[in-house]
Amino acid sequence: MPGKLIPEALKHLFKKEATNLYPKEPFPTPPDFRGKLVYLPKKCIGCTLCVRDCPAQALKLDRIAEKQFKMTIYHDRCINCGQCVEVCPTDALSMSAEHEYASYDRMSLKEEKNT
């Protein structure tokens, strides 16, 4: 048994690693990666299609005044499915490549933007 183990161990000793050294070497994200949700308030028309279509209820849109809205994104609830991005008629929502936004404080994952 040990006689078979030594040649196998020596063979793998000089092979290139199969994994990334993640914290030191960040891995590249694919082109259509669905990361953190990004809201562009200037493009929003307040149709609330994104709010109605979100399965995780991670979006909230409040009307402040005529043609003025306040979008609240709960990143702790978001499952990065991209349905809100697909349904938005004005491309006010998009998915970024950012994926490292974990936090110990849940309120820091709440993002509010006004138009």
Q: Uncertain regions: pLDDT < 50 for 5+ in a row?
A: none
Quaternary state reads single chain
Terminal residue distance: 70 Å
Major sheet size, sense and barrel closure:
3 strands, antiparallel
Shape: elongated
Q: Output the radius of gyration.
A: 22 Å
The first-level CATH class is given as: Alpha Beta
Number of strands: 5
CATH architecture descriptor name: 2-Layer Sandwich
Strand residues, percent: 15-25%
Helical amount? 10-25%
What does this structure look like?
It is a single chain. The chain has 115 residues and is α+β, with helices and mostly antiparallel strands. The chain has a single domain, classed as Alpha-Beta Plaits. Helices cover 19% and strands 22% of the residues. It is built from three helices and five strands; from the N terminus they run H-E-H-E-E-H-E-E. It starts with a helix and ends with a strand. The model has no long low-confidence stretch (mean pLDDT 90).
